[in-house]
What we know:
CATH class of the largest domain in chain A: Alpha Beta
Number of strands of chain B: 14
Number of helices of chain B: 16
Structural class of chain A: alpha+beta
Strand order of the largest sheet of chain B: 1-2-8-3-7-6
Strand order of the largest sheet of chain A: 3-4-8-5-7-6
CATH topology of the largest domain in chain B: Cytochrome Bc1 Complex, Chain A, domain 1
CATH topology of the largest domain in chain A: Cytochrome Bc1 Complex, Chain A, domain 1
Distance between the termini of chain A: 63 Å
Largest sheet of chain A: 6 strands, mixed
Oligomer: heterodimer
Radius of gyration of chain A: 23 Å
Radius of gyration of chain B: 25 Å
Order of helices and strands of chain B: EEEHEEHEEHHHHHEHEEHHEEHHHHHEHE
Structural class of chain B: alpha+beta
Distance between the termini of chain B: 61 Å
Number of domains of chain B: 2
Strand content of chain B: 15-25%
CATH class of the largest domain in chain B: Alpha Beta
Order of helices and strands of chain A: EEEEEHHEEHHHHHEHEEHHEEHHHHHE
Shape of chain B: globular
Shape of chain A: globular
Amino acid sequence: MFWLSVAAHAGSLAIPYERYELDNGLEVILHEDHDLPIVQVNLWYHVGSKDERVGRSGFAHLFEHLMFQGSLHHDAEYFEPLQEVGGTINGTTSLDRTNYFEGVPSEHLPRALWLEADRMGWLAPALTQEKLDNQIDVVRNERRQRYDNQPFGLSRMILHQELYPEGHPYQVITIGKHEDLEAATLDDVKDFFATWYVPNNATLVVAGDFDVEQTKALVERYFGPIPAGPEPSHAEAPDWSIEGETRLYRVDDKATETRFWMVWQSPALYASGDAELDAFSSAFGSGKDAPLYQELVLDQQIARSISAAQHSQMLESKYVISGTVADGHTADEVVAEVDRLLAEALERGVTEAELEVARVSFEKRFLGNLRTVASKANTLNGYNHHLGEPDSAQWDLDRFLGLTVDGVNAVARATLGNQDRFVLVMSPPEEEE
Amino acid sequence: MMWLALWACAPKAPVAAPVLAELDRTMMPAALAPRTFELPDVQVASLANGVDVLLVEDHELPLVTVRLALDLGSSHDPEGLARLASVTMDMLNEGAGELDVTAIEQERRRLGMSLGQSAGWDSSAVSTTHVTRNLEPGLDLMAAVVLEPTFPEALWEVEQKSRLQSYQRNLREPGALARRVGGALMYGDAYHGRLSQEADYQAITTDAMAAWHRDHVHAGNATFLVSGDTTLEQIVPLLDARFGSWGGEGANPDASPTMQQPEATTIYLVDLPGSAQSVVRGSTFVPGRTAADFDALQVANLVFGGQFTSRLNMNLREDKGWTYGARSSLSNSHGNSLWGFSTSVKSEVTAEALAEALRELAAVGGDAPLSAEELAYQQSSAIQGYPRRFDQPAYLLDRTWDERLYELPSDWTERFPERIGGVTLEAAQAAFTEHVVNQPLAIVVVGDVASIQEPLEALGHPVVLLDSDARPLEN
């Protein structure tokens, strides 16, 4: 990581790397950083919950859990041999991808590679009904803990279910439905593994304190013999658009206040218009100096919190203005005021000064993301997954530094200057007198 | 400071020969040559008024983090004004000197600076991160917020309503509710256990904030923790210019919290009708960090429940599938530490899960004492995992601050591997049995009382129904 600070924004952000491919199609990206004697192994499979088939929601994530339950040559818990040497190990699944990562002392890099390779090549022979049943229970408990048992825990689920049309890859969020999780079979797991967990659908990043030649030999040794699979075909963005407004009112038994979400369709992550909407949010909806907060929270006091943000996703994004309604007021009242302020903001447009504020905050956010070896490893894989170029940090930052007032205003008007949107309102149950 | 990788761990699985041998995937690969780890330096200097500055340099990125740490927090909120420290710290950026809230926010964002305030039980902080080129104006803003807050009445009225609304919300969040009730049971109606209630928020005034600020946010309580792209030569004059003539001293109130060790294991049940899961927490006080057997207790806790591979999680999650996770931990404060386990389990198995956790605990003192293998595993885990923590320079500063705040030996952090490595099986077994296994626990269960009360009563411990303020309900 080098930063050459020559002028206000004229730095150069780089994460030097070497990328190559094994014969079986596994992409490998190496990034050296010798500050500490630790190494990060970060493996992305290019599959997310968007790629699940209908009736098997939650499956990509359930599968991720099974990846920690043992494989042919290490048919035991995956945490065990890595926590033994002080390593961290985990994985996450999102709509768009699945990642696995380990941070271990440098000398134990072979152990981490050995384990990752074994489950990439030989997970299926070690699968059992007992493991599947256990992890279905664990994942359903994860859902209960993080979604079902929290105030507003179901909001994102309802929002995706009602916003996206039937069969849309984002219609069910990653955690999935209880009934689909319960219905998962061993055959489903094996099919999913054969389809998606092939070396030619994965990218391995090794970052930190390691020797390049030695590591290349280790990677070839452990991953090289895994056979390539058929090229999987990924979910594609459906051609659809919201027409008119749908406003949905739901009761949340656990809620003690009312919240609302106003959602527009917006450009995909890294697509033209994505950065423009981030910049618009910076001026309009984030911070105590922004119109939304000033007017609705401080002056009128009809909302307790309010924010506007572009939620970037791979196939298409959603632009969300959400808030908490002050007791004694209604969501419809706040939404009407948001509409008024939004119309004013779009009419007025962002200013050069506001854009400059946005640029500085993006710069700082980018720097913050490169602070640890673990986040650099994940950043390389993220850029590679979405853009095909691991070292896109400067390109990404330039998207923001190069924004113009006219560009931002045009995109904001095109995206938000209409009533083609979905509004969700969630309120506490009516009190019985 | 230098610490060599002294720990040689005996791997459990057979070890393969080095890289060139034919690959046998059933063999765990041998380790490569071990590397040494050097603990970064903490540089120390003082401002003109005696305020200490601790610095960990890191010039990889053009960012500087400056944190003002105060050695007093919410533990001593005045009677009837619970959360005063937290509210006061939160209000610091709502107006300062000539700047109103909008001007503060505009300047902060113009500089690309982050600014956050917080109050814990024993300490409070104003935390800032700056891009290097904007460090000086950023410190100006930080100084204004710390030294000249105005606590505008009108903004407190807004914030007060917001706090009251989120207070209601938190009473419905099962994890937060369990922590609230558990804290009150263990610490009593003072210090760490003091419950915030609607009346507290209604009673807090901007005058009370100004008084708290005057009495506690002063040089006598302050330490600057700095990390990132700066040097002592640069940062000390910059801080001196802004904080060097800052005065104030005075003893803080006695920092030792009151502690109520449970007399008999008791289940305290708090109702959240219709819960999909029950949150279960069990606690007891154990000796604090300077006790001779504290390290033994730490290692034993790792075997029992400290991480994923510990007995508790492997049983409740990986064997039974009753939960997304179960852990036990030690939380450290002035005086004794608090040991506790916690999990969130499917409602139908609440009593079974609690019984299983208690059975695991009893087993340590009975038919499944800690084994030499488990102990070695967790020692290896803690010691070999030590260097990784320093990936963020702030970690070392946090630990150093911790040593100062709680008056621990100054090599407490540095000697961590040595202390952990020195724990014997006998010591770990004895410490955990005496201080945890043989102690009564206060167990809080937050869930759907209608469906879980009866099975919990069958466990043989007294069951007491409490409200969200930890007051017993009439049955």
